[in-house]
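$ ./design --mode recover --in tokens.txt
reading tokens...
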């Protein structure tokens, strides 16, 4: 479901490789809003996309509810093993070969092109990163720094908010509605969210359009579902008997979280 939602709203790949002939809902939202300035049509397409995402999330929750009662995780030894037969080895070799061709080859070509200068190769293009260009009017390194700062801030926000949400989801004994709602941002159109922020927060005291932190905040909204899906299962896996034993020995709720929950979910939070 996560793969489906992530690719359903894919923007850059479709825009570059698909072109107008293979437009998707996501790229058409962008075309209508930015190129045609038709915000009404863009809004309608955004609602259609959100309905599709909601349907996918609903199906996911129904399947999870059906699987969970008889669930259980298979031991790692039963799942992971070395390929034994010739057919299995050929399958592994074929998979690695396809990865090398379709992932490694484009990256290798990009590296070669970045070093190409005339008939030879040099690091001149990398040295020019420190100099402003006539198109960007700023040093490309500033874009690199902005990317790192935005990503760092978005990571911090997503882990904190998503971690708290994971505790709420894991501790809920009712319907998994909250879990489903937290997955919606993953399938929300990035263009829709961006224009939504611009339109909704355009007047004082909620005029956030010129604030630099608006970018990592919106990025964090899309990343929070990943955090929840990583951390929540780990919290659910904690044995309640550990908490009960600690409580009988006099541990307060805060100490239970500090000495039992936090050490166990630490790795999940690091992954998130």
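writing sequence...
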């Amino acid at each position: 479901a996560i793969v489906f939602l992530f690719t359903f709203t894919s923007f850059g790949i479709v825009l570059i490789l698909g072109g107008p002939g293979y437009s998707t809902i996501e790229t058409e939202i962008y075309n209508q809003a930015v190129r045609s300035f038709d915000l009404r049509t863009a809004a309608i397409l955004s609602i259609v996309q959100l309905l599709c995402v909601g349907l996918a999330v609903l199906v996911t929750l129904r399947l999870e509810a059906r699987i969970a009662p008889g669930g259980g995780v298979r031991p790692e030894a039963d799942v992971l093993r070395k390929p034994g037969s010739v057919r299995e080895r050929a399958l592994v070799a074929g998979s690695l070969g396809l990865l090398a061709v379709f992932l490694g080859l484009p990256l290798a070509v990009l590296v070669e092109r970045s070093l190409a200068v005339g008939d030879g190769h040099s690091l001149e293009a990398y040295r020019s990163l420190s100099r402003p260009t006539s198109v960007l009017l700023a040093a490309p390194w500033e874009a690199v720094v902005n990317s790192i700062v935005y990503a760092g801030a978005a990571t911090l926000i997503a882990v904190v908010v998503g971690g708290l949400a994971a505790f709420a989801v894991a501790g809920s004994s009712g319907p998994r509605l909250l879990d489903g709602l937290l997955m919606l941002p993953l399938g929300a159109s990035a263009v829709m969210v961006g224009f939504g922020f611009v339109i909704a927060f355009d007047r004082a005291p909620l005029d956030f359009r010129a604030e630099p932190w608006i970018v990592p905040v919106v990025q964090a909204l899309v990343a929070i579902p990943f955090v929840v899906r990583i951390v929540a299962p780990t919290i659910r896996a904690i044995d309640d008997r550990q908490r009960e034993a600690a409580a009988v020995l006099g541990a307060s709720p805060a100490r239970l979280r500090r000495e039992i929950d936090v050490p166990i979910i630490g790795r999940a939070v690091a992954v998130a």
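exit 0
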